[in-house]
Design goal:
38% of the residues lie in helices and 17% in strands. With 197 residues, the protein is an alpha/beta fold. It has a single domain, classed as Glutaredoxin. A seven-stranded mixed beta sheet has the order 2-1-5-4-3-6-7. A hairpin with a 5-residue loop joins strand 6 and strand 7. Helix 2 runs antiparallel to helix 6.
């Protein structure tokens, strides 16, 4: 008789967020619902049970200013590590541009960070050829930030919450402007906001 009571208490503690290991993590049931709603290229999206800290290493704007992920300004950010020489990166970039056009604003920003050796002129040429007009040019010239964030393959895309913590990751190309991608992102953002309160 004691085991069922203990199991019920453990379940209640987990679902009510009393477990410090799940503090500020997305509710397990909600996480499962979000995982179940993924379709097509979104099936590769991994959602950990709790947010992960991110690197404090700086990346650069095209004019040389240094930024770090903790400079979140309270926004959710979709951070995409890419390179001009990477075919899947080039293929998905227009969808990231459309996502920023549709979703970007006070609460959300797409950040594409060219990692490794990428000539700035090559980035300009590619953006012009692909019709990319809504994305900033950000650089990780030595690839240090990408390595520290575990972006071992390109493209790698992270979703950061308002506090600058990683709440989702997708390795490989994806259609970020699809209705399903937008629905999954909305659900993740709402669940993250709910978990933070």
């Amino acid at each position: 008789m004691k085991r069922p009571l203990l199991a019920a208490m453990l379940y209640a503690a987990l679902t009510l967020g009393a477990n410090p290991l799940l503090a500020n993590g997305i509710d397990a049931g909600v996480r499962t619902e979000i995982l179940d709603m993924r379709e097509d290229s979104m099936r590769k999206l991994n959602i950990p049970s709790k947010p992960a800290k991110v690197s404090g290493t700086a990346f650069e704007t095209e004019d040389g200013r240094k930024l770090v992920f903790s400079d979140s300004n309270g926004k959710f950010r979709l951070v995409n590590f890419w390179a001009t020489w990477c075919p899947p990166c080039r293929e998905e970039m227009p969808s990231l541009d459309r996502l920023q056009a549709d979703f970007g604003g006070e609460d959300f920003q797409v950040m594409t960070i060219a990692t490794g050796r990428n000539r700035i002129e090559g980035i300009y040429d590619f953006f012009e050829m692909a019709g990319v007009t809504n994305l900033p040019i950000l650089l990780d010239p030595r690839g240090k930030l990408a390595r520290e964030m575990g972006a071992l393959g390109l493209p790698t895309t992270l979703l950061l919450d308002r506090n600058g913590r990683e709440i989702a990751r997708l390795t490989g190309g994806a259609d970020w402007s699809s209705d399903n991608a937008k629905a999954v992102l909305r659900a993740l953002m709402e669940a993250s906001d709910h978990a933070a309160n």
